[in-house]
Amino acid sequence: MHKEEHEVSVLGPPHSTILPRSTMINIQSETSVPDHIVWSLFNTIFLNWCCLGFIAFAYSMKSRDRKMVGNMTGAQAYASTAKCLNISALIVGILMTIGFILLLVFGSVAIYHIMLQIIQEKQRY
């Protein structure tokens, strides 16, 4: 028994007294959530058919508020809604503007022909 104790004491403690350490680094990725505030403002001022631009502007402001508080999930939800409303406002605005221009052109041509007929009928008398 005495010999076994001696062998153990010869081995002794581990040669390296440094314990392995692990380091964990948490990198928070700054998730950029676009709030589409400029696009919403443009649609509010120029293409505000059916008030879609104003509603998109309100959702953009809510998205910006949520982003400032740190609620990225809520900010993303409001930004997505604002984006959909902005796309709808842009499409409806462009179609309505083109329709208004066509109505103006065809209406002007129709009025011109009616006036021309009235002038020709007055010249007959």
UniProtKB/TrEMBL annotation:
Pfam families to which the protein is assigned, alphabetical: CD225
Source organism of this protein record: Colobus angolensis palliatus (Peters' Angolan colobus)
Coiled-coil residue windows: none
Gene Ontology terms: cellular component: plasma membrane
UniProt subcellular location: Membrane
Keywords: Membrane, Transmembrane, Transmembrane helix
Transmembrane segments: 37-59, 89-115
A biological-process GO annotation: type I interferon-mediated signaling pathway
Family to which the UniProt record says this protein belongs: Belongs to the CD225/Dispanin family.
Protein name stated in the entry: Interferon-induced transmembrane protein 1
InterPro entries hit by this protein: CD225/Dispanin_fam, IFITM_antiviral_protein
